[in-house]
Amino acid sequence: MPDNGGVGHFNILRGHLDGLGERGVSGVKVVGDFVPNYQQGLPSELAVATLFDPTTGVPLAVLDATMITAARTGAMTTVGARYLARRDSKVLAHAGARGTAWWNVTMLDDLLDLDEIRVTSRRPESREKFAAELSAELSTPVRVCATAEEAFDGADVLVEATRLTEPEPLLRTAAVRAGAFVVPYGTVSAVELDLLDVMDKVVVDDWREARSGRFGSLRRHVDSGRLSEDSLYAEIGEIVAGRKAGRETATERTLFWHRGLSLLDVAIAHLIYTRAQSTNTGTMLRFH
């Protein structure tokens, strides 16, 4: 890790997928996570992805993965909502205005017949700007909230995507009413330790990834044993594949924690790469 006074860190994700192209494809994504970047007019997360031929190691492509990271995250949130949220959910509350926020809100609005979108973030200028951008794109009314407590109170869908540097309970357990769908995925915990006590179903994208690393909104819950293989309801893939049920009643409280999978980054990067090839888009670089 760089000696930068703790202002940020890098995540390095790697993966290989068979069945893509003639020989499959391998890839690596490096994403920086630097909360103070807004002071320089930059996103907090900036990323680059590289694709490789797995039989020779020859680099195939270098891609800007900032959008890939944000869009993939929003898509995963929305896949969770498709199976775990009430389809008659009317109020979406979103805490955090970083790059993934746009994709979370716009995709959820496309999926659900919402009556209101509530947004908040720590800085007033950030939440006001985010709300203005959403209002210019969506027909659903967007309400700016000064606090997370105001945003989450009584909401049907609660998304916590904040940029804390130290744990702080922004999404309180008492705000989660019957029938709510909760998505906490901030880097540092912004939920109370008893949040899982009120949940009827807890779902993750991948249990192995949920147990790894020192970051994640439910890190304390895993480390303390409150979230374990026994208390976990399912991985989202099991639900999508029909091996386990998603939401079954209108009153269930459901939670989806997604850490992000490198295989999805590789798959999306490969899709962009093949489309660029077919349209002769991009710049060819000499490797040797």
TrEMBL record:
Coiled coil: none annotated. InterPro entries: NAD(P)-bd_dom_sf, ODC_Mu_crystall, ODC_N. It holds the Pfam family OCD_Mu_crystall. SUPFAM superfamilies: NAD(P)-binding Rossmann-fold domains. It comes from the Bacteria. PANTHER family: KETIMINE REDUCTASE MU-CRYSTALLIN (PTHR13812). This is Ornithine cyclodeaminase family protein. It comes from Kribbella hippodromi.
